[in-house]
Amino acid sequence: MREELAATPGRLDAVLAAALGITRAEAHRAIAAGLVLVDGVARPKSHRLEGGERITVDLGPVRAVPPEPGPLRIVYRDEHLAVVDKPAGLPTHPTEGRRTGTLVNRLLGAGLPLADVGDPLRPGIVHRLDAGTSGLLVVACSEAARAGLAEMLRRHELDRRYLALVRGEVEHDRFVVDAPLGRRGAKVRLAAVTGRPAETAFEVRERFGGATLLEAAPRTGRTHQIRVHLAAIGHPILGDRRYGGGGADAERLGLARPFLHSYRLAFAHPVTGEPVRVEIGLPEDLAEALRRAGGKG
Questions:
Q1: Which of 13, 130, 240, 285 is the catalytic position?
Q2: SS3 call for 86
Q3: Which of 65, 134, 245, 262 could in theory staple to 236 by disulfide, Cβ–Cβ 3.0 to 4.6 A?
Q4: Does domain 156-297 have CATH number 3.30.2350.10?
Q5: What CATH code would you report for 2-63?
Q6: H or E segment to which residue 139 belongs
Q7: Is-contact 104 124, C-beta < 8 A?
Q8: In 3D, which of 257, 267, 197 has the Cα closest to residue 227?
Q9: Class of the 65-155 domain?
Q10: What is the mean pLDDT of residues 91-114?
């Protein structure tokens, strides 16, 4: 989208970044691509502005997410949506500071049509997984699917199930954590007064000496919700160094990331209404950690 600005004094790149709320690197890319004109003339990024000049800029091509090759397992696919198996270590979508190396880049590289969700950095993405979390994610390929999935998420009608191996012996076989969450810096914390509502149901799947395998069913979808809820009750996810799950016991299991895996998605298809249910097993690193937890490694 083309925009016109009245310049303030300073370097062109700095003025552009401040005026549009973008990074300096993004301003550099737009200027280098010839997408920024000062009084109708392309200028270098170091050009000094006196103030009052007319800047014309089109960030559309710069903000586009580049397609990339890479492994991509599509578990379910039709014309409206896809369910993909996101590997651990892969961010779900780009950010202003990182445009490559994400699941969205691979989806585009595979030629999947991705619905416009109102954010050019998140095409097709209606919910996300943390970079360190593996497993199933549903992606919108059509506007009808995007609208339907967004409504299902708002109504808590998307059944998402995770497996989490946590430190310690959990007391109850079934329990619910209902605790609002808020962000403080890089971490998410419990915030009873100012936080957003967050609720997760848990069920014990298997017990080990010093560890418990849980199934987690988040009703809401807050950032780091399962991880923070488990840390708050004294049972952090093993391998989750940010929220207290690191240390010798995680190292003994060979965990280099949180033991958190999205293994099941179930929902009514947002367009056809037909039931969709997809399950996958644990990736090898988590399967090996589970064997070690059971004394078989």
A1: 130
A2: strand
A3: 245
A4: yes
A5: 3.10.290.10
A6: strand 134-140
A7: yes
A8: 257
A9: alpha beta
A10: 90
